[in-house]
Amino acid sequence: MRPFLPNRRALTVQEPSCKRKSYLAAVTSTTRERILDAALALIMRHGFGGTAVTDIEAAAGLSPGSGSFYRHFRSKEEVFTAVFERELERAQEHRRTFERGPVTGDPQEVLARRFRQQLAYLTAVRPLIALLAREHTRFPELADKIGGVLLDEGISEEAAHLSGDLGTRLLSDDPHATLAVVVSALTGYHLAREFFGHPPADIDEHRFAAALAALLAPPTP
């Protein structure tokens, strides 16, 4: 009787094709983003403590309790950290689109336009600010990191641009402190619109930005 010899072809493990690997990577990436989007929406609505992993799975279109979440994140803390990191990266990407370069026109008009960009930026990073306001005591290290990037590094970076772009036309010999004042004013204006539904004294943003710019640079003669 002839011994049984397994079919070598049948035993060969087929490696996924490059196209298949790309597809799987895309699906994994898409699922991960859905989980992050779901976690962001739920935590902003219910807080970290009021959001369960099964809630995130359901909101992301996964089967609750199936363990699908854990193929991408080890814990709720890890997904929350990933949400923070993603929103911070988005904030930094948005800031890179700001107008830069030497001011060649009316400095007040240029500054007013740049301040309106800053207000748009504050609107864009609203999810990050909301998360930070709600959960900063639970995640103090993340809060410190985000505060350092958005405030400390942001003010230093913008102060350097302000000083370099305006040069001697800047009506201040302390651009770093000046930017801290500007950021505080813009943040206060933004928060007033967010919480009270209208800007301070109902001053529209064009008028507000123009008034702020007039404090920093003289008009073109």
From TrEMBL:
<protein>
    <submittedName>
        <fullName>DNA-binding transcriptional regulator, AcrR family</fullName>
    </submittedName>
</protein>
<keyword id="KW-0804">Transcription</keyword>
<dbReference type="InterPro" id="IPR009057">
    <property type="entry name" value="Homeodomain-like_sf"/>
</dbReference>
<feature type="domain" description="HTH tetR-type">
    <location>
        <begin position="29"/>
        <end position="91"/>
    </location>
</feature>
<feature type="DNA-binding region" description="H-T-H motif">
    <location>
        <begin position="54"/>
        <end position="73"/>
    </location>
</feature>
<dbReference type="Pfam" id="PF00440">
    <property type="entry name" value="TetR_N"/>
</dbReference>
<dbReference type="GO" id="GO:0000976">
    <property type="term" value="F:transcription cis-regulatory region binding"/>
</dbReference>
<keyword id="KW-0805">Transcription regulation</keyword>
<dbReference type="InterPro" id="IPR001647">
    <property type="entry name" value="HTH_TetR"/>
</dbReference>
<dbReference type="InterPro" id="IPR050109">
    <property type="entry name" value="HTH-type_TetR-like_transc_reg"/>
</dbReference>
<dbReference type="GO" id="GO:0003700">
    <property type="term" value="F:DNA-binding transcription factor activity"/>
</dbReference>
<keyword id="KW-0238">DNA-binding</keyword>
